[in-house]
Amino acid sequence: xxxxxxxxxxxxxxxxxxxxxxxxxxxxxxxxxxxxxxxxxxxxxxxxxxxxxxxxxxxxxxxxxxxxxxxxxxxxxxxxxxxxxxxxxxxxxxxxxxxxxxxxxxxxxxxxxxxxxxxxxxxxxxxxxxxxxxx
Length: 135
Known about the structure:
Radius of gyration: 15 Å
Largest sheet: 6 strands, mixed
Structural class: alpha+beta
Shape: globular
Helix content: 25-40%
CATH class: Alpha Beta
Order of helices and strands: HHEEHEEEEH
Strand order of the largest sheet: 2-1-6-5-4-3
């Protein structure tokens, strides 16, 4: 089970990096819980799709230096990576966007159910990001 979960999370991030939102969202359960960094929990694939549409409008990101770990039974996983991004459009409540580039360490925690992502909790240092984009 561990190997399948690691493959699932690697596939999730490969789809993200490819901009393949159909595949990316297809790896989520219908009732996926999404814990937004320093924000609220959203529930459901449709809410996640709206979140990603917003993110893809404001940011262009590629994730590198990926390390994925999973529990023995495959029910939980974690990933650590580096976000290499460009700030494309001003996100509400954040500094003005002007194409600034940023490099940001980040991580995520996952719950897996029936071969799909049932929860994803993302973490990164928002103050570091703000400093990098000139806020």
